[in-house]
Each structure stands twice: as structure tokens, then as C-alpha cells.
Model the fold of this input.
Amino acid sequence: MISEFKQLEKLFHEIDKQLKTDVNVYVIGGVVLLYHGLKPATKDIDIITTDENEYIAFKEVLKSIKFKIKDPVGVYKKLNLSSILERNDYRIDIFYQTVCKKLSLSEGMKKRANNIIDLKHLKVFLCSNEDIFIFKSLTEREGDLEDCISLVKQGISWVIILEELVSQIETNGQDVWITWIGERFDILEEKGINISIMEEINKMREEYFNQLERKYQRSS
Done:
């Protein structure tokens, strides 16, 4: 488990020393909550890269500093991770471009991200709380729901979340992920969280089911 962000800073410096090319990584998981003091510890370092060459370079450096590639099991298989690498207490889950092969790291997400580490070759960006909330609403890992609640309690913009979800649909097309997010929002409401965009979310997932029905009717 990682209990202090300083541990990660040390790791990122170690990675930077081995890199021969510039790499940008976007952090999307519990590490962000740890950084903001919303989580006491985390076991996963969730990272997105958006350039194939940068993804390869980052992965190869991890292997060169004794990280071992692991095969995903259980709930991690559903995440469609590009790579999982482990070394001692560090576990790095790398996504290339998309999470669960559904949601991409959009230009809006990149603009909202905060560049917290800027080294010779490595730049580390923390995604915004709103975007962390969206990504965590896609997954079923232990603790992700509680992390969503922590983010809500700290304060997030439902307007930004709705705008991003609409943008994802416009860019990538309507897909099943909106139903996953809708289900997570249902659970959050049951736990007493007021979600001001719930009406819009319900319309979006209803439209997804309507599209499925139209496809079925055309094919039958």
C-alpha cells in the first residue's frame, strides 16, 4: 500500500532518470485522492497514456527497473487494462487511450488535468476530481464507490461531469458504459447522494436502450 504521495514522487524521479524520450502520463485513480488527502492509502497507480510510443517507452522503463508484468485477474480483467506491472508495494495499471475500452482521455480532461511533476523527460498530470469521478463510476473495484462519495463530499461540478459525458457520446458514440454509470449513480442516490444531473443521465441511458431496440427491430 502507498500511504504518502512522496513515495510516488520518488518513483517518478526514478522512472525519469531511465527515460530517453519525453513521456506524458495522466493519473486517474486513488492516487489523486491520496494527493488531495481524501484517501489514507492506495494500492493501485492508475495511469493513462495517449501516445503509443510514449506508452511503449514508459512500459519498457518500468521493466528495466524491476517491475514485473502481471496478468489481470478477477475484476481487473473487466477493466481491459493495457498493462499491469508490479514491484514490491507498487502496482501500476496502465491504460492506453481508453478505460474499459469505452471512455477515452478527452481533450477536455487533458485541459482540466493539473501538471504536478515536470521532470527532464516525464510529465505527470493529475486528472480533475470530476474526471476521476467519471472513471471510478465505470469500475467495480473494491473501494471505488466510497471514493466517489469522498469526491462528492469534497465538492465536484455536476455540470462538468454532464458536459464530459455528452462529449464522450458525441465523440465515441452512444455505448453501454452510460448504463454502467447510471447504475452507479442509482446506488449513490440510495446512499443519500444528491445527483442534480440524474434526469439527464436517465434520458441518456434510455436513449441507449432505444437504440438497441431499433437495431433489433431492423435485424429481425
Observations:
- The first strand starts at residue 23 and ends at 27.
- The radius of gyration is 18 Å.
- The chain has a mean pLDDT of 91.
